[in-house]
Each structure stands twice: as C-alpha cells, then as structure tokens.
Write a structure and sequence with these properties.
The complex is a heterodimer of chains A (404) and B (308). By secondary structure, chain A is α/β, with parallel strands linked by helices. Chain A has 17 helices and 9 strands. A 6-stranded mixed beta sheet of chain A has the order 6-5-4-7-8-9, with helices on both faces. In chain A, strands 1-3-2 form a 3-stranded antiparallel beta sheet. In chain B, the strands form 3 sheets. In chain B, strands 2-5-8-1-9 form a 5-stranded parallel beta sheet. A two-stranded antiparallel sheet of chain B has the order 3-4. The mean pLDDT of chain B is 89. Chain B folds into 3 domains: 8-74 and 119-199, Rossmann fold, CATH 3.40.50; 82-113; 204-302. Chain B contains 15 helices and 9 strands. Chain B is an alpha/beta fold and 308 residues long. Classes of the chains: A alpha/beta (404), B alpha/beta (308). Chain A binds chain B through residues 178-181, 192-193, 196, 199-201, 203-205, 220, 301-302, 306-308, 310-311, 332, 336, and chain B through 72-73, 75, 77, 83, 85, 88-89, 92-93, 95-96, 101-103, 106-107, 110, 141, 144, 146, 181-185, 239, 279.
Chain lengths: 404, 308
C-alpha cells in the first residue's frame, strides 16, 4: 500500500488537486479518500482511462446525486478536449445572462464556480464590499435587512444568499399520536410481552411491569403552490423551500398549479437542487401564465385528494387567491378540501402590503375554509413558518382577523 | 376440492361459475398469480369487486378463506400472533408452587407453541400441501408503512419469524390477495413482490352480465336501463362514481320497490343507494336525472330497432 514507491510524474499531485476541485463543488472528499484514491490508482490494475474513471468514482463518489458533478469534473480535469473551452463559454454566457442552455446543465454551473472560484468571489466582493455571513455577529444588521426583505426586491446576489438560507430550513413537524405503541418506561399502558420476558430473568419470581406509550409521528403534508404570473416571483423562491422540505421529510406531496395541476413530488425529491429545478421546469408548462384556482382545486379534489389526504394530512396552500373566474366554484372546492384535510394553512404573498384587506372575491371565497393565514414574501416569513408550523396556531395567523 | 385452473379460460370459467364475471385482463392475472404462486395486488375504486375475487376463489377452489382487515395501528399482536399471557402467568405460578424454578426450562416451557395465539397471517401459513388457504389482506392502504414492511418477509418467503420459537414456514404458500383503495401509495418494495392489477369499472356489456349473474330475479329490461344509467353517471363529472356494488344494490332496491322500469321519480327517490356524496346527489336530482334517463331509453330503443 503506502509502502509502494510514489509513481513518477505528477499523479499524486493531480489526484490531490482533483479532490480539491470536487470539494469546492460540494462533494465531501476528505484527505482520507485522497489517500485511498492514490492507493487505488497505484494498485497496478489500471489499463485504460475508463478503469481510472471508475476507480476514482468508486472512492470519491458516495452518493447517487454526486455522480453528475464527478462525471463533469473528471472530464474537465483529466483533459477531455474542448471541455474547458465549453466551460469558459458557460462562464461568459452567465455574465451576459443568456439563460438558454443553463437549465440543462444542472451540475455544470456549480462546477464552473468551483473551478473559477477566485474570479467569482472577487467580482462579488467588488459588487458588494460587506460580504454577508449569516452567522457572524458583526454583520447582524445586514443579515436582518436581508431576512426582512421582500423576495421581489432582492438583487441577484441577495437572491442567491436567500436561496442558501432556505436550503438549510427544516420544518418542525406537528406530531400526531398514532395507534401504534413503543416501549416507554413512563408509559401509561402495560406491555405484557416485555413484562413476561423480563420476569423470566428472575425465573418468574419477580414480575416488574414494562410499560409502553403511543408513538407520535408527523402527518402527511400536501403542498399546493400557485405559479401564475401574479405570484411567480414568490413561487420560484418557494420552490427552493419545497425542495428543502421534500428532502427532509417523508410523506410529502407537492403540486404546482397555474392553469393546470402538476404533481412535482418525484422531481423535487432529487437531492441536487439544480437538477430538481430543471426537472420541475421540464414538466411544468404553465409557469407565469394565468390562474384558475377553482378548476385546479377541483382537479386536485377529484384525482388526488383521496390518495394523498389520508391519515390526518395537512395542506399548505401558497397562492395570492386572485381568482379571475368563477369564485362560487372556488368556494365550493375549498369547502370540499376543508372536509378531507385536517389542517389548512394559506400562505399569501399579498400580505407583504401593510394595508392588505381581504376584499377580492377570490380571497373572500377561500378565507372561511383555512385554519391559518400567513405571509410568505421574505426569509423571515419562511423561517417563522418552518419553526412554528408544528406548534398550535397562534393568534397572529388567525384568519378570522381578516374576515369582515 | 377443485384443482387450480390450468389456463386463462379455465380461470375465467371458475370465477364465472361462482358468480364473478371477470374480464380477460383480470382472469389472466389471477391465473398467473395461481400458477406462479405470487401474491396478487388488486387496486381500484371502492365497490369494483376486489374483495370479491378472494371470496370467489376460496369458494371455487374449496379452500379456507382467511381475511385480515387492515386498519391504522394494526400490529403483529393482532395480525400474526400473540402470546397467551394469562396462561403463561398461571404456568409460572404453578411452576413456583411446585418448586421447580429452573430458568432455562421455564423459558422453554412458557414460550411453547401451546401458549401461542395464532392470528390471521400465521394461520395462513398452516395449510397442508394441496389445500393452502386463500389469504385476503383487505384495504392494505389503511394501515401504515411499518406493517407493510413486516409483510415483506411473509410475502417473499412465506415465513414468519417468532423470536422465542424460531421461523415458521408454510408447507405450501397460501393464495394471497391484497386489495387497496389507494388512499395512499403502497411502497414499491411490496408491489414488486406481487402481481399488480388495476380493477376498473366494467363496460356496459360486462356489467349487464354481472347483474344477470348476481341478481337473476331482476327483469332484463330493468337491468339494461339501470346499467345504462350507471354507465352514463360514470362518464359524467361526479366526485365519486358508483361502483358495481352500488349497481347491484340499486337493482335490489328497485326490485323490492316492484319497479319494472326507471322513471325520474323513482330515480330521485332511490338516488341515495347509488350516490353517497351530497354534492353528487344535488347535482343529479331533478332535470339531470331525467335527461340521462331519456338519453339511455333512446339508446336502448335504437339498439332494439337495429337488432331486428
């Protein structure tokens, strides 16, 4: 193993540098894996470039979603002709902001950032001298400003920072009691099976009672997100929130709706946010279009409600509630939804206006059927949502406040 | 006892003899499940005859039917086995009284098979060769994932492991039918071990056959009108379309009311047999029912004319 003489040339150096590139691109590659990779490369069984690829792959890739980044990094780093050129081109198109082929190269952008890291950070420093560090005490005020800022008014850099903050968010689940039991020394019920087994240790002479308690678990969560033109800026940001939730919890189902309903649960379950977003935009055809809340809710009620709203499900509805069509139907479908869901939370970006009043007929049609009414336009709102969704509804989000 | 069918036609025939009119698709998948000794996973709306498949198979093959109704919180104690704690306690007291407190022996004595209360899944593994029972696991979607995971061992190897006793394996695997109403998705790992079939609503021709087989007393004219009406309802925009079970109930109801044909008044009065959601009933009441009725009567008349 390490006793073998170092190979001539720069193999060791190169592997080390390659590992650094991967680390920059977000793969957890430590010094131990670098040593392993070096050992493997020297094992003497490598014949072709492909062997080399799969050897490094075996050691450096630990998760399925890292394959994409590794693959591209390998081809760039170990000299596939023209690849570097393409990468440079990509950096240029980023600067000129033509977003044409950005979507289909999900891992690519991050890799480019990793390789041209210094250029990137420098340009960012010039643009914005006080770099934002979300946990540093002396930048608390800048952080506060960002957190309270409306998503729509953010600059591109601020949006990127906001997205990074969203990626770390976790929902506190509202746990419900199930009918299943688990051992618990302070439980209220007696666990006969364990009691008897334990009593055997003393030969049946002494019987101590083992106890059990009801298990608690989070209920299924269904998220319906409006992507029509009037709130698409918020839904784009909310999509990142959805991604964080999707990868954190089990039993989450997510739908996007504008003029029609699309189930994007599978797409958003991808670990890699870039890959997830590009998959979503591939299946969703009605971004920033019109909105038909009543009709899409009807589709949801008929096709999906029975499948996803079982076992005490909660519903998060993200929409501005500005229905352009029949609000009678909307009220009817909300009523239907109300009967099959245990708890409905309405997230409305319109709450960003101080003088908001529930006047629009669409909003008035939805309002009677929701349990909570919350804002969703800034990082603060999302953090608050993530932290307090699990606790009982507070008076601040009581929809009755808004009813006239 | 009847032998298991040897072909798809045989299977369809077997089902039909016991009053189940199966489509070619269902007959095929049932035949394969029997042949390959794999569990059959039936999914579909409520009232399309998923549970009935198991009952009819048990009857047709002369096997015992063991039914496990799933519900939330269903656990091993009520689905597979439980120890008879009271009897065990008495055994311990007896041993104590007679002064034989040998721990090793006590452990073996207490967890012996005679103290085991066998529940549905364990009973299903006890079939003799050639007479394995039909095991119906009904509405699996009502229980939780933890129970599904438990079923994996049972369904792939037809065995159950009891820590105190060891592994119990079936001499011959039972015929397993699993049904689900799809109130949630059942995990792929479980589906992978089964043959899957979506049981849909039957078409008019087959539904008429079903009505004839199950309600032979009903007049042919009434049956044709009822089936036409129900089919039209299914094509419409209802929250819950009526299933085959509802059709049969409706026929029985109309038969009890001595109606020989449908008229708007009877339809309105008996709509509750067919539709179970208030919204749907409100939508159907009055002119809508009459419109559908006129339409199917016209269709039946045309069909009769062209047949002549």
């Amino acid at each position: 193993m390490s006793a073998a003489p170092l190979p001539s040339g720069k193999l060791a150096d190169n592997i080390m540098h390659f590992a650094r590139v991967l680390r920059e691109a977000g793969l957890p590659v430590g010094p131990a894996s670098v040593l392993d990779a070096l050992d493997a490369a020297q094992s003497g069984s490598l014949q072709t470039r492909e062997d080399f690829y799969w050897t490094l792959h075996a050691i450096l890739v630990k998760r399925r979603d890292h394959r994409e980044v590794f693959d591209q990094a390998f081809h760039v780093f170990w000299k596939k002709p023209k690849m570097l050129e393409q990468l440079m081109k990509l950096m240029f198109t980023q600067i000129t902001r033509s977003a044409s082929d950005k979507a289909k190269q999900a891992g690519f952008r991050r890799l480019a950032e990793a390789m041209f890291d210094k250029v990137e950070t420098q340009s960012r420093r010039q643009e914005k001298p006080d770099v934002l560090e979300l946990d540093a005490a002396f930048t608390a005020s800048a952080d506060d400003i960002l957190r309270a800022k409306d998503f729509e008014q953010m600059t591109l850099t601020e949006q990127a920072d906001a997205r990074a903050a969203i990626a770390l968010m976790r929902l506190t689940p509202r746990e419900i009691r199930t009918r299943r039991f688990e051992p618990n020394s302070a439980g209220t019920a007696i666990d006969m099976r364990r009691t008897l087994k334990q009593s055997l240790r003393t030969g049946g002479g002494l019987i101590t009672l083992a106890r059990r308690e009801r298990q608690r678990r989070e209920p299924p969560l269904v998220i319906l997100c409006d992507i029509s033109g009037s709130c698409s800026n918020y839904s784009r940001m909310f999509l990142h929130f959805l991604h964080a939730v999707a990868n954190d919890r089990t039993r989450v189902t997510m739908f996007l709706f504008g003029t029609r309903l699309t189930n994007v649960t599978r797409e958003l379950k991808r670990r890699d946010i870039d890959e997830a977003v590009s998959k979503v935009s591939a299946v969703v055809k009605d971004w920033s279009g019109g909105t038909r809340i009543g009709l899409t809710l009807k589709e949801f009620n008929q096709k999906w409600a029975r499948r996803v709203l079982a076992q005490g499900a909660e519903v998060l509805l993200m929409s501005d509630g500005l229905e352009r069509e029949d609000t009678v139907q909307l009220a009817h479908e909300m009523q239907r939804l109300r009967r099959s869901a245990k708890h409905i939370v309405w997230l409305n970006p319109l709450l960003r206006f101080d003088g908001f009043q529930a006047r629009a007929s669409g909003i008035r049609a939805i309002m009677p059927y929701v349990d909570e009414f919350r804002p969703v336009h800034s990082l603060n709102c999302l953090t608050d949502l993530a932290q307090t969704l699990g606790s009982r509804a507070s008076a601040a989000h009581d929809p009755r406040k808004w009813r006239q | 006892m009847t032998k298991t069918p040897t072909s798809i036609d045989d299977t369809a025939d077997l089902l039909k003899r016991n009053g189940y009119v199966a489509g070619r698709d269902l007959a095929t998948v049932v035949f394969l499940a029997l042949k390959m000794e794999r569990p059959l996973f039936l999914e579909g709306e409520a009232g399309v005859g998923k549970t009935e498949v198991a009952k009819v198979l048990a009857e047709g093959l002369g096997r015992k039917l063991i039914r496990l109704q799933c519900y939330e919180g269903l656990d091993i104690n009520s689905a597979v086995y439980e120890w008879n704690y009271a009897a065990q306690m008495i055994e311990i007291r007896l041993a104590e009284a007679s002064g034989e407190l040998d721990r090793q022996r006590m452990g073996q004595d207490i967890f012996a098979e005679r103290f085991l209360i066998k529940r549905a899944l364990l009973q299903a593994l006890e079939g003799e060769r050639g007479s394995a029972p039909v095991l119906l696991i009904d509405e699996l979607d009502r229980t939780d994932e933890a129970f599904e995971a438990y079923l994996l061992e049972l369904l792939s190897d037809y065995q159950v492991t009891i820590p105190e006793l060891g592994t119990i394996k079936a001499a011959e695997p039972p015929i397993v039918i699993i049904t689900s109403n799809r109130t949630r998705e059942v995990h792929d790992a479980l589906k992978r071990r089964c043959l899957y079939h979506w049981v849909g609503y039957p078409d008019a021709k087959r539904e008429l056959e079903i009505v004839k087989a199950r309600r032979p007393n009903a007049s042919a004219a009434l049956a044709r009108e009822v089936v036409g009406f129900v089919q039209a309802l299914r094509a419409g925009d209802l929250f819950k379309a009526p299933g085959v079970a509802e059709t049969l109930d409706w026929i029985t109801a109309l038969h009890e009311l001595d109606s020989v044909g449908l008229d708007p008044q009877t339809v309105n009065d008996t709509l509750g047999v067919l539709l179970k959601y208030q919204d749907d009933i409100v939508r159907m009441e009055g002119s809508e029912a009459k419109r559908i009725l006129d339409q199917i009567k016209e269709e039946i008349r045309i069909a009769a004319v062209t047949a002549q």
